Amino acid sequence: MKNPQEIIHLMLSKDAFSNWLGIEVIEITEGKCTLACKVTESMLNGFDIAHGGISYSLSDSALAFAANSRGFKCVSIETSISHTRAAKLNDILTARCTELHRGRTTGIYQVIVSDQHNKTVSLFKGTVKILDEIW
Amino acid sequence: MKNPQEIIHLMLSKDAFSNWLGIEVIEITEGKCTLACKVTESMLNGFDIAHGGISYSLSDSALAFAANSRGFKCVSIETSISHTRAAKLNDILTARCTELHRGRTTGIYQVIVSDQHNKTVSLFKGTVKILDEIW
Amino acid sequence: MKNPQEIIHLMLSKDAFSNWLGIEVIEITEGKCTLACKVTESMLNGFDIAHGGISYSLSDSALAFAANSRGFKCVSIETSISHTRAAKLNDILTARCTELHRGRTTGIYQVIVSDQHNKTVSLFKGTVKILDEIW
Amino acid sequence: MKNPQEIIHLMLSKDAFSNWLGIEVIEITEGKCTLACKVTESMLNGFDIAHGGISYSLSDSALAFAANSRGFKCVSIETSISHTRAAKLNDILTARCTELHRGRTTGIYQVIVSDQHNKTVSLFKGTVKILDEIW
């Protein structure tokens, strides 16, 4: 079974969209990870703030990395996100994913995205199904 | 007050990320809209399927257009999505947004994303706050 | 394998809390069910309206019955509810549960609760895990 | 403006359903509260475990008390709950509600329900609208 770093390296190296987002891995341990990316012009919506899909996508990648880091392949079942603060051009978004629950067949994770002033941008909760397949 | 077509034209023309996604407006009426986009290489994740952020982003744009189409500015409070089927390269995703509830200060919308075979890719629910500001 | 009526009869007859709620089964077919109950004094909260837990509980029972009606035991993974209108003393609440998605291992259901004037009281979405065990 | 204890005393004393649940207030401060109740026979479902509506209702009361404790009346907009472990007859359920976000017009709260062995029974997230009305 691979370790968390190997698994996430494998996942991220082939993940075109996470790379388009400019995601960098800040920290990864079993069941936990921290990612960051910068808001670019292409990520803005018509209100000149980051499209809701940006912090969702960053959070969803954080969920995938944290859930898979334990060595078993996981797939997302249900996710929810509340956008609490607009992110603007050049803001640095940091997503911290923590494990709320790890059962035998499902796991629940929370991802908090904050900006460079440590203000909360979004709150995300994700439930994954844990497969029998190992990395 | 502008009509739905004018509002959505205004929103989409300045929405860089929705344009990056290649979103096309198929239909828009008050409280309802249908959008489509094609899954490109840049939208794939490490499993060679569309990143969960793609159908979320498409759904979130559909929510924004449908909610704002009634003439009052709306902001998203809480959204949730279940990914029921993987989307693959070159799949055409169609997002149909319908209004489940429109109160005085909040609205609730459902977005179903399906592929070109009419298979459901994701189920999304979004709650918006209706502001006093008109378009 | 038992039919939907037999399964729901079995579930409801031993379900003390659903009986406390006074739940009646209006209709049950595979993947679908309609339940009703009346708001009593004991169900009110400090604002003299039905406690949010009442329409949640009615919806959760509807989810359980609809999901289990297909013959395989199901357990709830994640549920969400939006309360759109207050229910008052003696209101008759009707919960209509429909299947949004039925995969091999998970199912997604929607429950709309309305009052006797056909006004929507709450919108519920529930995801279940489908077990290998048959009824 | 009343203090948290006064507000919660006022809310709970008239809340018939929370009293039916046997809810006791363990702790209440601004934006935070801890409640407890015991699983009785009437709260069980057909699987002889607490009905999902029980931990939802306990969590929803905790949300209401924590959100209203800051002195402004609040109403629930959207709530979600994941049931992670079955609660059984005579289990003591403790609900700890914390504030994830408090904006000008909306607040987001998390409620973790655990049993007497400190095992997590459910994870709840609730979003409220903050009204202009003071207690």
General description of the model:
The structure is a homotetramer of 135-residue chains. With 135 residues, chain A is α+β, with helices and mostly antiparallel strands. Chain A has one domain: Hotdog Thioesterase (Thiol Ester Dehydrase, Chain A, Roll). In chain A, 24% of the residues lie in helices and 44% in strands. Chain A has three helices and six strands, in the order H-H-E-E-H-E-E-E-E. Chain A has a six-stranded antiparallel sheet with strand order 1-2-4-5-6-3, with helices on one face. In chain A, strand 1 and strand 2 form a beta hairpin. Chain A is globular and about 45 Å long. The model of chain A has no long low-confidence stretch (mean pLDDT 96). Chains in contact: A-B, A-C, A-D, B-C, B-D, C-D. The interface between A and C is small, with 7 and 7 residues.
